[in-house]
Amino acid sequence: MHSKFLEILCCPKTGQLLNLTTTSINSNGVVITGKLFTEDGISYPIIRGIPRFVDEEYYASSFGFEWNRWPKVQFESENIGRPMAGHTSSMWKRITSTIPAQIEGKLLVEFGCGSGRFLDVIRQQGGIAVGIDLSQAVEAARLNFANDPNVLIVQGDITNSPFRQDVFDGGYTIGVLHHTPKPLEGLKALVKTIKSDGWVACCVYPKGEFYDYVSVQRFRKLHNFLKPVFQYYPALIYIYLSAYVLTPIISKGSRIPILSILLNYLAKNWIVVLDLPDVRWRILDIFDAITPSIATTHDSDEVLQWMEESNCKDIHQTDWCNTSFAAIKK
């Protein structure tokens, strides 16, 4: 972390201001090792440039594995000239419905940043990017931004964040709250960190779509049953089989009218396949679907209610999906 970010941080336990001591700083002014501490002695280490406000991944361990294995697959720089080129930027813009004036030079936060593909979109538009994640995905994010002094990566709990209130110009959470025990608490915590009249965006899994399929739920339960003994090996075997063999078979077979009904039934109930044009994205997204310990789905009325209860105004549904909303903090 760069020392300039000290002014937006606080102790997540008490809300107290933090002091900083350093033992290693790089040429960009980024603190590599050091300590954040309160006046009454509560302290948090800075390890490899990341302030650590938790010492466990808890329910988010699958994402630590995922983003360290595939840290840049969804970055725009890795997709130039490939089938998914522009997808991440388009997704971010459609969910947040922001304009350039809301990004350039602004201090923005992402709750649940993973390896940082959306933080990269912010940096490409001249914004100052802050990301928090519970999992070891912060290690991948740290490497992806190579000690950029205008990026802060924090390991912490989004429902009990280490950010002061009313410090960010805007903030968002995309594909994350449905992986937490209490989504509404996560959104409320995000909105508290945003300045009055700053923008807020939220997107979660919608009911009835891919992540809600019976097949996905079956595989998720199977993975979590097997994981204590076999770790991620069964899931890894399946995702490569699905991405390279099952998905192409299902995709081609579905074009034959006599088979399409049967294959659609199998895909929704028994076989997890995802027909994305880039096999690398298929591998990552199938893993993302079948390995979380928590993965709920929601409807538009529910997310709208979250926004209303989180002190937002001018709430509107954006065009990514029916559980994608943007608003302004009151």
What is the CATH class designation of the largest domain?
Answer: Alpha Beta
**Whole-Å distance between the termini?**
30 Å
Query: How many structural domains does the protein architecture include?
Result: 2
Assembly state (oligomeric): single chain
> Biggest sheet, strands in spatial order?
7-6-5-8-9-11-10
* Portion in helices: 25-40%
Give the CATH topology of the largest domain. Rossmann fold
What's the topology here?
Elements: E1 19-25, E2 31-37, E3 43-47, E4 50-51, H1 61-69, H2 87-96, E5 107-111, H3 117-124, E6 128-133, H4 137-145, E7 151-155, E8 168-174, H5 183-192, E9 194-203, H6 214-230, H7 233-253, H8 257-269, H9 279-290, H10 300-309, E10 312-317, E11 324-329
Parallel strand pairs: 5-6, 5-8, 6-7, 8-9
Antiparallel strand pairs: 1-2, 2-3, 3-4, 9-11, 10-11
Helix pairs in contact: 1-4, 6-8, 7-9
Folded structure, characterized:
The protein has 330 residues and is an alpha/beta fold. It has 2 domains: 54-206 and 298-329, Rossmann fold; 210-290, no CATH class. It has 10 helices and 11 strands. A 7-stranded mixed beta sheet has the order 7-6-5-8-9-11-10, sandwiched between helices. Strands 1-2-3-4 form a 4-stranded antiparallel beta sheet. Helix 1 runs parallel beside helix 4 (137-145). The radius of gyration is 20 Å and the shape is globular.
TL;DR?
This protein has 330 residues and is α/β, with parallel strands linked by helices.
Which key terms come to mind for this protein?
330 residues; alpha/beta; Rossmann fold; 2 domains; four-stranded antiparallel β-sheet; 20% strand; globular
